[in-house]
Every structure is written in structure tokens, then in C-alpha cells.
Specification:
The protein is an all-beta fold and 120 residues long. The chain has no helices and eleven strands. It is globular, with a radius of gyration of 13 Å. The relative contact order is 0.31.
Amino acid sequence: QVQLVESGGGLVQVGGSLRLSCAASGRTFSGIRMGWFRQPPGKERAFLASILWSGDGTYYTAAVKGRFTISRDNAKNTVILQMNSLKAEDTAVYYCAGSMDGYGAKYDFWGQGTQVTVSS
């Protein structure tokens, strides 16, 4: 059974940084595209960034490009989202997800989410 577990969320001040982790288990992830999404209060969930399990093929939405970095930690079977220069509007529940097609057209499994709150 595929399991994704996010961690690293919390409360941070504007301009600060957080590092989110997504620990993956339960299957072989070769060829899988892993993504990070977020859902602000009262809004829909939105794509942030994605990366192939090999570490190639990274993509970012314009709102976070240059501030957020997605990466893989092969030794720990983990996908990382490093978030810098945080803004109040980055406050949301952050989710990681996996897309079996490798392109991100559809995400097939999701973590439970981790709350990030950026205070001004």
C-alpha cells in the first residue's frame, strides 16, 4: 500500500524558511512524478512543483518559482520542498502526491497534508 507522509510544517514569520518532507513507501517509485500542492483556507488545492523520482524534470508554478525548490533524497526515499522568502499568502495546507503516468496529468496517491502558517 502506497503511503506518503508529509512533515516539516509549522508557524514561521514572513521572510522565513521552512523545509517540508514527504516520506514515500509501499511500492517502487521509479518513473513516478512527485508533486507538491497547497490548499489555502477557503480556496481550491493548487499545484506548486513537481519532480521525477529520478530527480530530473522539475517544474514550478509561477507563484513559487525562485522561492521554492523541489528535490529528492534518494537515501531516505523522500521528496523535499524547500521554501524560502515566505509570504503571508503562502499560508495553506501543503500536500505531496504521486503521479504514476510520470507527466503529472493525474495524481494517483496523496499524503494527509501538513499545515504551514506564515505570520506577518
